[in-house]
Amino acid sequence: MNKETKKIIRLINNSYSVEKSIFGDMIASILFPKNTAAICYSNDDFFLLIPPQDKQKQEKLFKKIIEMLSFLNDLDKRHLIYVHPAKNDQMEEKPYIFYEMKKYVRNSQDPLSWKIGDGLILHSVEDTGFSIERNNSIILESTHLPKPIKDDLNKYLFSYIYPTTSLSEFINRGFRSNEQYALRLSFWSLCIAILIPIIAIFLSNRWGYITIDKKQFNQLLQNHQCSEISNSTINYPILTSKK
């Protein structure tokens, strides 16, 4: 699991407020930071915006999005999160942008452009999608996202996502399910069971330490006492007669 996905799951776990942002806006600062990336939704289609001609960035971000969606699906199936759809008609009236620097989406004098804050313009580009510009200079430009992930993007980006109590346990287990955590414990128990006799043999060979049972100890003690008696010398006083 990449660090962005972990941050997103922790963010969900710490978000209990009823009046909260939709999920796509919540994660904008994590996945779509300034001058780095954005996702734009328009006419039932999604566009990934990246720096011009940065194919490497596109591939990395796409993999992060896929991993995030995969984990969200898994958390949802295991009832670790509650997903409440929040999409409405107002969101369909004009392009919706998921981007850290977005403050609003307002119409401009150009019907194909929208102000999104701090001198930033979201511009509709024929055949290619959208671009984000400042002072007529392109910061980000778009490419289509694959259609198979469109349903999941719709489901999660435009929803409120709430944590269940089990999500905290999932995080405390190191982002592992009960099954994965139990398997990990079994693995370490097996390792300890294997290592203990090996360590005991090593210590015995290293320092000559040997353990004996009670019966062996009593036999050794008895043999030692017998040996002392047989080897002892008894001194008797020598009597001399007086003349």
Which terms would index this structure?
10 strands; 2 domains; 8 helices; alpha+beta; 243 residues; 8-stranded antiparallel beta sheet
Report on this structure:
With 243 residues, the chain is of the alpha+beta class. It folds into 2 domains: 3-175, no CATH class; 182-231, no CATH class. The protein has 8 helices and 10 strands. It has helices spanning 3-13, 23-26, 28-31, 55-77, 150-157, 165-172, 178-207, 214-231, and strands at residues 38-42, 45-50, 81-85, 96-98, 106-107, 113-117, 120-125, 129-134, 137-144, 159-163. The protein has an 8-stranded antiparallel beta sheet with strand order 4-1-2-9-8-7-6-5, with no helix packed on it. Strands 3-10 form a two-stranded antiparallel ribbon. The model is unreliable at 232-243 (pLDDT under 50).
Low-confidence stretches: 232-243
Fraction in helix: 40-55%
C-alpha geometry: elongated
Give the percentage of residues in beta strands.
Answer: 15-25%
Instruction: Tell me the number of structural domains.
Output: 2
Mean pLDDT equals: 81
In whole angstroms, the N-to-C terminal distance is: 110 Å
Number of strands: 10
